[in-house]
Write a structure and sequence with these properties.
8 helices; about 350 residues; globular; single chain; alpha+beta; 5-stranded antiparallel β-sheet
Length: about 350
């Protein structure tokens, strides 16, 4: 499936080294102010070529809105957006067309479909996420208009380096001020150096993106199978290179007793709140009004310059030493993508919840 969502549905299309990539949004309410500059801002956060810490592929990733918007407002009809691939180099992958790159989707795509686009991985490339980010930018505008809901994501950990971040106060400005999008001013430069060293070593690193969603309305979520945390988990695990998802206390919760883990309620001037947030902003699969806090683990970039053993399509063992343009660590460009997917989930559930009233 290339479509995500129920009432707010997106369909992404395009391949990494094809003519263009894009997205079609179906279900966007009418008369929403659509800020094209805000969409472009989000795409700029995820575009390649930002620094020596990312892939050197140079793409401006300028968005074109083809339909569904008139005089700056949504029409309620499908919104189609496109980004042209300007710096595609499909010929650079010619020597890989008969090989299965380790930890890539080459082998599985070939076995599933009997054919694959070997030019940069085709649909399995992270370039597919452009459509998600563009659609997520519109979802963010809907959420902000409804309840001033915001979704933020930042680098929490790279390799063994861990940041300390206050989810209640962290700002977009603090995140964007860091070259690695880590708002911890002590750890951020260490992360940058660790990534650069991996690049010089022709290797790669993984890490953790943490996200916080603030001012989320109470009552979002559709138990039992479409719990808000279940849909967030699916959204995040559908992203390239993701290996794990946890919300609230996550796996650390197993080290606590029930009396330590339970989030006690209290009355805050007429508003029901919880004293702690081990549940991560959800209970019973429904938002409770507290911040939604979750983490997503990303593996080290699969394409590296070190020699690796693999096989070709005929099963012959060969040594692969990949060359080309790739990120030494995908996390630097991942926050915008994680934010977009969170916004898409929350917007879809917001519309589903409003349909009940």
């Amino acid at each position: 499936m290339n479509t995500f969502g129920h009432l707010f549905r997106i369909t992404t299309w395009g391949e990494s080294h094809g003519g263009a990539v894009g997205v079609v949004i179906d279900g966007c309410p009418p008369q929403i102010d659509i800020d094209k500059d805000a969409i472009q801002f989000e795409l700029n956060r995820r575009r390649p070529g930002q620094s020596h810490l990312t892939t050197p592929r140079q793409e401006e990733d300028v968005v074109e809105i083809l339909s569904g918007v008139f005089e700056g407002k949504s029409l309620g009809t499908p919104i189609s957006m496109l980004v042209w691939n300007k710096d595609a180099r499909p010929a650079a992958y010619e020597h890989l067309k008969n090989l299965y790159r380790p930890s890539h989707a080459d082998y599985t795509y070939q076995q599933k479909y009997g054919i694959r686009n070997w030019q940069g991985g085709g649909r399995a490339s992270a370039r597919e996420t452009i459509g998600r980010v563009a659609a997520g930018a519109i979802a963010k505008q809907i959420l902000h208009k409804h309840n001033e809901t915001e979704t933020l994501a930042y680098v929490k950990q790279i390799h063994t380096l861990k940041a300390t971040v206050d989810t209640d106060t962290v700002t977009l400005q603090e995140i964007e001020a860091s070259p690695v999008r880590c708002p911890d001013p002590i750890v951020s430069p260490k992360m940058a150096e660790r990534i650069d060293q991996a690049r010089r070593d022709q290797d790669s690193l993984g890490g953790i993106i943490e996200s916080v969603c603030r001012n989320v309305p109470v009552g979002l979520g559709e138990p039992v199978f479409d719990k808000i945390k279940a849909d967030l988990a699916k959204a995040m695990m559908s992203l390239p290179a993701t290996m794990g998802f946890q919300i609230g206390s996550g796996f650390d919760g197993i080290t606590m007793t029930g009396s330590e883990h339970n989030d006690e309620f209290y009355n805050d001037s007429g508003q029901i709140r919880t004293r702690t947030n081990n549940s991560g902003g959800t209970q019973g699969g429904i938002t409770n009004g507290e911040n939604i806090v979750f983490q997503v683990a990303f593996k080290p970039t699969a394409t590296i310059g070190k020699p690796q053993q693999t096989v070709d399509k005929d099963g012959n063992e060969v040594t692969l030493q990949a060359s080309g343009r790739h990120d030494p660590c995908v996390l630097v460009r991942a926050p915008a993508i994680v934010e977009a997917m969170a916004a898409l989930v929350l917007t879809d559930h917001l519309l589903r919840h409003k349909a009940k009233s």
